[in-house]
Amino acid sequence: MKLRSVNEVLPETRVILKLDLDVPMSDGTVTDNSRLVKSLPTIKLLLEKKCRLAIIGKLGRPEGHDPELSLRPVYLELMSLLEPGEENLIDSVFVEDISNLEKLDTALVNNQIIFLENLRFWKGEENNDPDFLRPLVEVSQFFVNDALAVSHRHERSNLLYKNLPGFYGLAFIDEVEKILKVVNNPLRPITVILGGAKEDKLSYLPELEKIADYVLIGGKLPRLISNDQNYNSEKVFIAKLRADALDLSDDDIAKFSEIIRNSKTIIWAGAMGFFEKEDCRLGTQAIATTVANSQAYKIIAGGDTGASIKNLGLESKIDLIASGGGVMLELLTKGSLPAWN
What is the reported pTM? Predict the structure, then answer.
């Protein structure tokens, strides 16, 4: 599998660029711009090629047009990252109407960057309506995807490579290669750690058992496993949890840590306890420290997982902090994504 790089996009062309714009917000302000920063090399490369960019993405899960989930603040944050000084200002505009072909065409004539409103304001995105975004496609020549975090979803914007020559951003390709290294050239033993509260992680277990030597299950997941689900007990270790079931027990921490220390590859998605409560973070922090101090090849994903690593100042010891747990598990178990199938 070789993804076509953004490096191959022809100069002075019109490019639809999908970015991971689902950034943390508070009172209409971006509180963490790291997802935008990750894509700056791809954006700057296209700007150096004198391409005209139509930037698309989503924020949150709005029910129709929700002003609180407008991408306008994200647009302003991105432009501040691209224009730190007053010189060489980039002509740009925020576009709310994504259906008017003439207006889109005019906007791209007059601006090097047009930034479109939250695609999830329209049902056509999640419903994968083939007519959704047709006006934008008609005024564009290439599609570049640098939003790996949502590339496991069958959304319209992920499938634009079927309508235009498709390429992938620098961050997208780098992350895919690092994740697939676990499948294509693994160092064993491989340990997968699953936590958090999303039950859909358990649906990946049968395939993960084929890849991993050990699977450690914490967070809320032990409470979601029914008695009739028969997992391979030789590989799968389900946390017993402490008395209130909101964190790992001391025995869980000891057992999980022993396995982690003997691993050569570690994949971790999801907190080990109810991370929102301060007195339920001990398990996650203990596992984070053990993972970080391991000599293994380490990939982690998930908001609370990443937060625990950052809070402890251990980011430099992790080989990859992946864009999202869902896309990481999809890639590991299936080797491909809807974004390039």
Answer: 0.88
**Amino acid identity, residue 77?**
E
Report in angstroms the alpha-carbon separations of 320 from 104, 106, 131, 282: 37, 41, 37, 23
CA dihedral in degrees (27, 310, 175, 95; nearest 10)? 10
Helices (H), 169-281: 170-184, 205-211, 221-224, 250-261
What is the rounded average pLDDT of the residues 272-281? Answer: 90
Band of residue 138 on the pLDDT scale cut at 50, 70, 90: very high
Whole-angstrom distance, CA of residue 159 vs CA of residue 155: 7
Which residue has tokens 């920063």? 37
User: Chain centroid to CA 287: how far?
Assistant: 22
Residue 131 φ/ψ, nearest 5 degrees: -85, -15
Instruction: Say which residues have a Cβ less than 8 Å from residue 311's Cβ, sequence separation at least 6.
Output: 285
**Nearest to residue 31, comparing CAs of 4, 2, 59?**
59
**Six token digits for residue 278:** 């301060």
**Two tokens at 266?**
């570690």
User: Using a CB cutoff of 8 Å and minimum separation of 24, what contacts does 225-232 make?
Assistant: 229/202, 231/205
Q: What is the pLDDT of residues 109-128, one digit of tens each?
A: 999 999 999 999 999 999 99
Backbone angles phi, psi at 207, to 5 degrees: -75, -35
**Strand runs (DSSP E) across 241-335, as ranges?**
265-269, 297-301, 320-321
Task: Name the E strands within the chain.
Answer: 14-19, 25-26, 29-30, 52-56, 92-95, 113-116, 142-146, 166-168, 190-194, 214-217, 236-238, 265-269, 297-301, 320-321
- β-strands 25-26, 236-238: how paired? unpaired
CA distance 100 to 118: 16
E strand or H helix at 134: helix 134-138
Q: How many helices (H) and strands (E) does the chain have?
A: 12, 14
Q: Give the mean pLDDT of the chain.
A: 92
Query: Which pair of structure tokens corresponds to residue 124?
Result: 């056509």
Q: Which residues make beta-bridge pairs with 14?
A: 52
Residue 86 pLDDT exceeds 60? no
